[in-house]
Amino acid sequence: MRTTMLLAATIVVFPLLTEAQAYRTSRAVTPPPVIRLDPVRVADALARADVAWQAGRGMEARRIYQELIAEQREARAFAGTAMWRLALNYLYADDKARAAAQLDELSEHAAAFGDPALQLRATFESAVLWQQLKRPELVPARIERVQDLLQSPAIPESEKEFVRARLK
C-alpha cells in the first residue's frame, strides 16, 4: 500500500516539478550575444570619416561617424572617439545645437563606460555651447556636474586645470 501511494504521488508530483522547472528555465534571462568589433575596421572608419571631413564632405563624414557609433553601441563598445569627432563636425559645420546635444550624449556615454575625463570635457563644452546658444536654463546643471567632476581623483590634473582656467 505504501509503495502504491509513493508511486501515485510520484506520478502526480513529478510532472508538476518538471513543468515548474521548464517555466523557470523559459523565464531565465539570457545575455545578449557578444558582438566583437574589429579594431582595425573601427580605425579605418574613423580615418575615412576624417578624410571626408577634411575634403569638405561633411555630410559623408557625419554619416560614417553615425554608422560607426551605431555599430559600436550595438556591440556594447565605447564609442567616445567617434562621438567626439561627430560633435566637432557639427560644431565646424556651424550647427552648435546638434554639437551641444551630441556632447550631452557623449557625456552620458562616457559616464556609463567609466571615462570621467571625457565626461568632464564633454559636459563643460556642452555648457559653453548652450550658453552661446542663449539657452541659459541648460547651463547650471552642466556646470554643477563639471564642479563635481573636478573633484574626481580619476581625472588628470592637466584636464582639470584646462577646465578651471576656462571657468574663470
Helicity range of the residues?
over 70%
Number of strands: 0
Radius of gyration, whole Å: 26 Å
Model regions low in confidence, pLDDT < 50 over at least 5 residues: 5-10
Describe this entry's structure for a reader.
This protein is mostly helical and 168 residues long. It has eight helices and no strands. The longest helix is centred in the first third of the chain and has 25 residues. The radius of gyration is 26 Å and the shape is globular. The termini are far apart.
Features:
8 helices; globular; 168 residues; mainly alpha
Secondary-structure map with pairings?
Elements lengths: L1 H25 L12 H16 L3 H17 L5 H13 L3 H17 L3 H17 L6 H11 L7 H11 L1
Provide a short characterization of the protein structure.
Helices cover 76% and strands 0% of the residues. The chain is mainly α and 168 residues long.
